[in-house]
């Protein structure tokens, strides 16, 4: 029988190695799933992980997409990771992302068709504010009434989706759209557009914001007292209280930051790659970002790499759908599997596996 | 708006039907949480139950087999959760989320071949002349067996937790796993059984959506019912009878909002359809704000992993 023995201190080697191990295990299990679906597993895995980057036919289109898809994932995941480290579970990033897009788009469309250069910064601020407000609801309810923030933030996703539908069909519907749902196209209106900054890279303002967020949160966690308090509150809540960390302040701060970053991601998405507020412009980034945060071990640099990898599965998934007829849901299941394997191998960092016989412990 | 089109007896009868999925899932989760485990994957297990139930019911042309398969599907998914949290000691919150994300993906993968197919109808239980009693007959005696089964399960769980030794052990494990371990109870095994029961109940609840309430397959068919079930457990203060109350309350809101939509209320459809979620949040706030009462009822070891060698 195997026995788990707690390590005195977490193993540094396994901390770094577990995400890689999880990705490999997921590829194997995913290959089995693809084989069950009647596809050649090796070809499927190659189409997802290799072809988008190195195939001469597809890489021209796919490489820029990498940053386009990774940008929002990284931006949201960095925010989430702060809260997750402190034991504050904001899992409603999808809702905050939608609200950011609605607030930002509404702020911009109010001035249509002005060409004032201040409008885009205003929209960015409104987007961050929208996400922040939506995250403040669970934060305040938790600090004031001790309501579970997991359930509230998640339930608010459904509310945000209903609001989005009402906006796309009502208040924000394009007057020139001939009655079709959806707002004016923000990426074609020069004032509000969030274009590719360097041609052929996929770099837009959202990606820039994601990089800034990674650097800022790295500095925050490594060099700032607040980052120390966040880590302390997560690893030893009692010690944190004795050290004078105010838990309510941390809740408001972590939820607020993650909400604002998710809102920003929504705004940059709706002004750039998505283009307009429509009933289903959101592509589930808010939920996938949870996987990204864990895959990156809640570490900013790790999240950067994890975001790129997860973006690759999106692009490769589309390619596999097009080339091999692999259903899109298979990729979603594949991403979910990745999180399982991550959590499964995570214990290698904290425990040693010993061989032994079932002695009553 | 024509409110007179809404018949109260039919409304009550349909709220009993609407409450079934949430009631089943919440009862299962109650047992899981009483054992000290927080499984946030209810939504994932429900939707797996929904798709397994529909697929098997269509293939075998039998709703009964469909429900059995749904319970098995939900339990199978919860087995992954049990393995990760009980054997590999993974974080319960994160694993629950993973279960939901994975369940949503896998269910839509399985469900692809079943879009637009109607499952075989689940027959009503025949009460003979009782069903013809004017108002009472409509409310109480014209349902399918699962409606009565769900109430029976709530009663059985209540009796189990309150009157039996097994219930006492389950609660002991949930309140203080170290003490239970010291007394010689197999903490992990007891929790495993509770998790499997929770998975099976969530699966049944999901199948009720895809086989009776909707009845067909669409992606994301459960639409947050699993999360509402989790909220109901808090609302109920971890007491089985209050789950019955909570589920009927939310069934009532869902049905009322659907009826208002049909009656052409002045409020836009989108705002009506967000109301169950908003009211769930409101109820959560009220329950948790009431000083201590609900919080004190929560099992003391809820969400904490157990490792024997500490």
Give your account of this protein's structure:
- The complex is a heterodimer of chains A (361) and B (310).
- With 361 residues, chain A is mostly helical.
- Chain A has a single domain (60-326), classed as ABC transporter involved in vitamin B12 uptake, BtuC (Orthogonal Bundle).
- Chain A has 15 helices and 2 strands.
- Chain A has helices spanning 12-36, 41-49, 51-54, 59-85, 93-109, 119-145, 149-169, 205-223, 225-235, 237-242, 247-271, 285-295, 300-324, 328-345, 347-350, and strands at 2-6, 351-355.
- In chain A, strands 1-2 form a two-stranded antiparallel sheet.
- In chain A, helix 5 crosses helix 11 (247-271), helix 5 packs across helix 12 (285-295) and helix 12 packs parallel to helix 14 (328-345).
- Chain A is globular and about 75 Å long.
- Chain A starts with a strand and ends in a 6-residue tail after the last strand.
- With 310 residues, chain B is mostly helical.
- Chain B has one domain: Orthogonal Bundle (ABC transporter involved in vitamin B12 uptake, BtuC), CATH 1.10.3470.
- Chain B is built from 13 helices and no strands.
- In chain B, helix 1 crosses helix 10 (225-235), helix 3 packs antiparallel against helix 9 and helix 11 packs antiparallel against helix 12 (269-289).
- Chain B is globular, with a radius of gyration of 20 Å.
- The mean pLDDT of chain B is 85.
- At the A-B interface, strand 1, helix 6, helix 7, helix 12 and helix 14 of A face helix 3, helix 4, helix 10 and helix 12 of B.
């Amino acid at each position: 029988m195997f026995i788990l023995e707690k390590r005195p201190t977490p193993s540094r080697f396994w901390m770094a190695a577990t995400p890689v191990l999880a990705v490999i295990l997921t590829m194997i299990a995913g290959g089995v799933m693809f084989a069950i679906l009647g596809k050649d597993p090796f070809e499927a895995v190659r189409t997802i992980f290799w072809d988008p980057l190195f195939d001469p036919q597809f890489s021209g289109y796919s490489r820029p997409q990498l940053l386009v898809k990774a940008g929002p994932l990284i931006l949201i995941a960095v925010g989430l990771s702060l809260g997750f480290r402190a034991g504050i579970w904001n899992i409603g990033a999808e809702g905050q992302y939608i609200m950011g897009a609605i607030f930002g788009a509404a702020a911009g469309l109010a001035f249509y068709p002005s060409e004032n250069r201040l409008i885009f910064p205003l929209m960015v601020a409104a987007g961050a504010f929208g996400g922040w407000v939506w995250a403040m609801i669970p934060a305040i309810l938790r600090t004031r009434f001790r309501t579970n923030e997991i359930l509230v933030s998640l339930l608010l996703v459904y509310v945000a989706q209903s609001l989005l539908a009402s906006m796309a069909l009502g208040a924000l519907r394009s007057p020139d759209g001939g009655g079709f749902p959806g707002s004016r196209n923000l990426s074609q209106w020069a004032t509000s557009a969030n274009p590719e900054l360097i041609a052929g890279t996929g770099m837009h303002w959202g990606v820039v914001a994601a990089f800034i967020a990674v650097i800022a949160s790295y500095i925050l966690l490594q060099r700032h007292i607040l980052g120390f308090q966040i880590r302390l509150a997560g690893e030893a809540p009692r010690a944190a209280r004795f050290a004078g960390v105010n838990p309510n302040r941390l809740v408001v701060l972590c939820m607020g930051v993650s909400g604002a970053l998710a809102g920003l991601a929504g705004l940059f998405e709706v002004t750039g790659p998505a283009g307009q507020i429509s009933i289903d412009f959101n592509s589930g980034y808010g939920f996938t970002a949870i996987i990204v945060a864990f895959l990156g071990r809640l570490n900013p640099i790790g999240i950067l790499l994890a975001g790129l990898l997860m973006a690759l599965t999106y692009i490769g998934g589309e390619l596999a759908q097009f080339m091999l007829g692999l259903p899109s849901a298979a990729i979603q299941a594949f991403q979910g599997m990745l999180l399982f394997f991550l959590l499964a191998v995570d214990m290698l960092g904290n425990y040693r596996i010993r061989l032994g016989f079932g002695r009553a412990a | 708006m024509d409110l007179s089109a809404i018949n109260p007896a039919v409304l009550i009868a349909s709220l009993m039907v609407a409450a079934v999925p949430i009631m089943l899932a919440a009862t299962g989760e109650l047992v899981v949480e009483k054992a000290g485990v927080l499984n946030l994957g209810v939504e994932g297990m429900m939707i797996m139950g929904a798709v397994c139930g529909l697929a098997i019911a269509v293939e075998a042309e039998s709703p009964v087999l469909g429900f059995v398969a749904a319970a098995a599907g939900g339990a199978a998914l919860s087995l992954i959760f049990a393995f990760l949290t009980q054997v590999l000691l993974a974080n319960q919150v994160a694993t629950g989320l993973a279960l939901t994300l994975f369940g949503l993906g896998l269910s839509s993968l399985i469900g692809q071949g079943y879009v637009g197919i109607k499952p075989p109808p689940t027959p009503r239980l025949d009460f003979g002349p009782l069903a013809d009693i004017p108002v009472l007959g409509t409310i109480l005696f014209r349902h399918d067996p699962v409606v009565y089964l769900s109430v029976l399960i709530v009663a059985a769980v209540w009796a189990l937790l309150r009157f039996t030794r097994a219930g006492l052990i389950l609660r002991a494990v949930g309140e203080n796993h170290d003490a239970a371990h010291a007394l010689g109870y197999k903490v992990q095994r007891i929790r495993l059984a509770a998790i499997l029961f929770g998975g099976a109940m969530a699966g049944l609840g999901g199948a009720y959506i895809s086989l009776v309430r909707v009845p067909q397959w669409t992606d994301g068919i459960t639409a947050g019912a699993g999360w509402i079930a989790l909220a109901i457990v808090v609302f109920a203060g971890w007491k089985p009878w209050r789950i019955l109350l909570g589920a009927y309350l939310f069934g009532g809101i869902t049905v009322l909002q659907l009826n208002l939509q049909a009656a052409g209320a002045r409020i836009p459809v989108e705002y009506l359809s967000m109301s169950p979620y908003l009211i769930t949040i409101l109820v959560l706030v009220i329950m948790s704000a009431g000083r201590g009462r609900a919080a004190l009822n929560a099992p003391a070891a809820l969400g904490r992993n157990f490792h024997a060698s500490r």
